[in-house]
Amino acid sequence: MNKLLNKRVWQLLLLIVVLPLFSACNDEDDVISIFTNKTWKLSFIALEGSYEQFDFWQGDAKARENSMNALGQEGNFILNFEGSDINGKTGGSFNGKGISSSPSGAWSADGKTQELSISVEGNPNESDVLGKAFITGLKNAFKYVGDNNNLFIYYKEGQTIKRMGLKPR
Length: 169
Description:
Structural class: alpha+beta
Number of strands: 8
CATH topology: Lipocalin
Distance between the termini: 64 Å
Shape: elongated
Number of helices: 4
Helix content: 25-40%
C-alpha cells in the first residue's frame, strides 16, 4: 500500500512539473490577425496614456466641430492593411482615407517588440487639422498596441508622444 501511494505521489509530482512545459505561453502578437482582414476607423488622437481627444484646434470651436463631423462620417479616417508573415517578417501594404486624401504605402510590425513602421507614399494633403494629424501619425508611427478589437498606433511629434485609437468597423 505504501509503495502504491509513493508511486502515485511521484506520478502526481511529475505531472505537476511536466504540465507547464505543454502550456508554455507565446509572448508574440499575431500581427496578421490584428492588422488585416478588417477596416480600422479612427476614434481619437490623444496624448500617450490618455483617451481624451487632443486639442489640435487650439480653442477654435468651429474648426473642431468640422473635424468631429468629418470623423463621424462613414468612410473618413479609415485604414486597411494587407500583409503576410514571411520568414519572421510581418508587413505588407496599406491604404486609407483621411478627409480629402487617400494615404497608402507599406507597413511592417514586430509582434514581439510591438515596433511599427509605416511609410506613406507621396505627400497626402489635408486641409483639416485632424486630417493633418492623422497623416502625421501614420508617417511618424513607431509602435502599436492592440488586438482584434482595438488598435493604438503611437507616434512622435517633436518630443510629444501621441496615439491614435482605432476600432474595426
